[in-house]
Specification:
Length: 579
């Protein structure tokens, strides 16, 4: 099976198959031969060559060309090659970005030495999902240029770096970013922050600083692991001075936002009684006058990163928010911490997760869990990055209750379609029967009052028909229900024993960068979204079918000298009584 993008591609493909046009090199030549990959059974292959596309390819009206030109601009690659297949017990997807060193654009972040998977930054015990990578932070500005063609983010970044350089004499790129890495890691700590129990949550405290994503997540935060970022450092003494200046500027930015927030709140208060000018309703001798002006000049309470006491050659900063502060960066228990010693920089969402990271770094040895060790067995030794995602518990639970999950997704789609498109998904009303003739009492003197009452009663005593002259009764809600024998469903524990954490490995070879994804089962989002879409479309399709069935048939156009069924004195018609 061959898929083509347009007619020109189809013509070229046909000529190539017939030997009238040159063909590309075989995929085995493109991928190269590797004895370690002999167990990889390829199911499908795809490629895209956009080496000849330039900036002028955009705006041609061709969506695919625009997309490929964007990929080339952002990644700096000239070709994308992909293979899907199976290897051992894993579903494998290999994606290669063909590029030449030194890498440009986003791939420039990966222009660093690789590391061995046995030499990753140590992780706390119980961490089964993480991302470990080797990056060149100095190339971050180039990535911002690529991702922000309008210049808005680039302008703000330039303004902040210039302010930092003038106020604190710190060059963000040379003094700070250049001294981080190359090895870094990101994970969520299983340690629950003790600060989550410090203050009760209320709607006022959650949204006192404005509507923000961190506020929206506050209700579930006690049950969400804490995010942690760890990076190697170089020249710790110089980095420590740069970090001090960086924290000072961050605190200034927070203070400015807090002041602007309180000014906006004051401007929004209604004038008059109870408002900001309520004191003018009082006698002149009792007006606030200078006291009000002094209050406005008072210090604005704002969140601030404070330096905490710590051992020699280490630094600890923690975000602390005064209780009277109106502007907040998150819920009350949101207190991220920044820690730096002679070898590592730790940025954690709470003191608990920071302490767990510091303890792991001090141990200098990380022993992965059996599940992670099994997943890493299929990962190459030399890496630019690796991501491990342990979703075995959720996947096994999903598969154990798969029919019920799909049923719920379909019914959710049905309800969603009826909510968004009530007119389109509504079933057409049944045609009203002809009005019944009024009963003639005198015609039958033996009729009782009960008989007469039954004839006047709506529906003639039959509850399964609508009242004459009214729309059809609302049909029962449409739902899908699967009939499944529970004994035939697998147990969650049995399914979990067959699974292992998914991995994405980033490696380098002479052709460019290779991303290799290994998983025991396809992504959950795929078939769940398909069930949702199916349920979403079902009521719309059923309503369309019902309208077709209830629509009156078009009247047949009479043909000359051709008898129509039902006409008098014609074939198929009724005979006249006088015949």
């Amino acid at each position: 099976m061959i898929g083509i993008h347009n007619n020109d591609d189809g013509t070229l493909m046909t000529r190539t198959i017939d030997g009238q046009a040159p063909a590309i090199a075989p995929l085995t030549t493109i991928w190269g031969s590797n004895k370690e990959e002999t167990g990889f059974q390829v199911v499908s292959s795809s490629f895209a060559d956009f080496s000849s596309l330039g900036a002028g390819s955009k705006g041609r009206g061709d969506l695919l060309l625009t997309l490929l030109a964007g990929v080339k601009q952002i990644t700096g690659a000239t070709k994308v090659l992909q293979q899907r297949g199976v290897e051992d017990q894993a579903i494998v997807t290999r994606t290669r970005l063909v590029a030449q060193k030194p890498y440009a654009a986003a791939l420039g972040l990966l222009d660093v030495p690789s590391f061995k998977k046995s030499e990753m930054i140590p992780l706390p015990e119980g961490v089964n999902s993480f991302v470990a990578f080797s990056l060149n932070p100095e190339r971050l500005t180039g990535l911002i240029d690529m991702l922000d063609p309008t210049g808005g983010l680039k302008t703000k970044y330039a303004e902040f770096t210039q302010t930092l350089k003038v106020s604190s004499r710190v060059d963000l790129e040379k003094d700070l970013l250049a001294r981080l890495g190359p090895k870094m890691t990101f994970y969520v700590s299983p340690v629950k922050s003790a600060a989550a129990e410090d203050e009760p949550l209320s709607m006022q405290s959650l949204f006192s600083g404005g509507v923000d994503l961190s506020n929206l997540l506050a209700l579930s935060r006690p049950y969400v692991p804490e995010a942690t970022f760890v990076a190697e450092v170089k020249e710790p003494a110089s980095l420590g001075k740069a970090l001090d200046g960086f924290i000072i500027e961050i605190n200034k930015e927070i203070k400015a936002k807090a002041t602007a927030f309180e000014d906006a709140q004051a401007a929004a208060e209604p004038r008059g009684r109870g408002g900001r000018d309520a004191d003018f309703d009082q006698p002149k001798a009792k007006r606030g006058g200078g006291d009000r002006a002094k209050d406005r000049k008072a210090e604005v309470a704002a969140p601030k990163f404070n330096l905490l006491s710590s051992p020699t050659n280490t630094k600890k900063f923690q975000l602390q928010t005064p209780s009277q502060a109106k502007y907040r960066l998150g819920p009350p228990h949101f207190r991220p911490m920044i820690y730096m010693d002679g070898k590592h920089l730790v940025i954690a969402a709470s003191a608990g997760s920071a302490d767990a990271a510091i303890k792991a770094l001090e141990s200098k040895e990380w022993k992965p869990s059996p599940e992670v060790e099994k997943a890493l067995a299929g990962v190459p030794e030399n890496l630019l990055g690796v991501a491990v995602v342990d979703s075995t518990s959720s996947t096994s639970a999903l598969l154990a209750s798969f029919p019920g999950t799909v049923q719920a997704q379909i019914n959710t789609g049905i309800a969603l379609a009826k909510t968004l498109f009530p007119a389109a998904s509504a079933m057409p009303a049944a045609p009203a029967p002809a009005p019944a003739q009024a009963p003639a009492f005198a015609a039958n003197p033996r009729r009782s009052m009960k008989d007469a009452d039954d004839e006047f009663r709506p529906l003639n005593g039959r509850p399964d028909q609508p009242i004459p002259g009214t729309p059809a009764a609302t049909p029962p809600p449409q739902v899908v229900k699967f009939q499944v024998n529970p004994d035939q469903l697998p147990k969650s524990e049995e399914v979990k024993a067959l699974l292992f954490p998914s991995t994405i490995a980033i490696t380098e070879d002479p052709q460019g960068i290779l991303f290799t994804q290994r998983s025991a089962f396809p992504e959950q989002i795929g078939f769940q979204s398909n069930a949702l879409v199916a349920g979403f479309m079902m009521p719309l399709i059923q309503a369309a079918r019902a309208r077709i069935k209830t629509a009156p048939a078009p009247a047949a156009t009479p043909q000359p000298n051709v008898a129509q069924p039902g006409q008098d004195n014609r074939p198929g018609g009724r005979r006249r009584r006088d015949e």
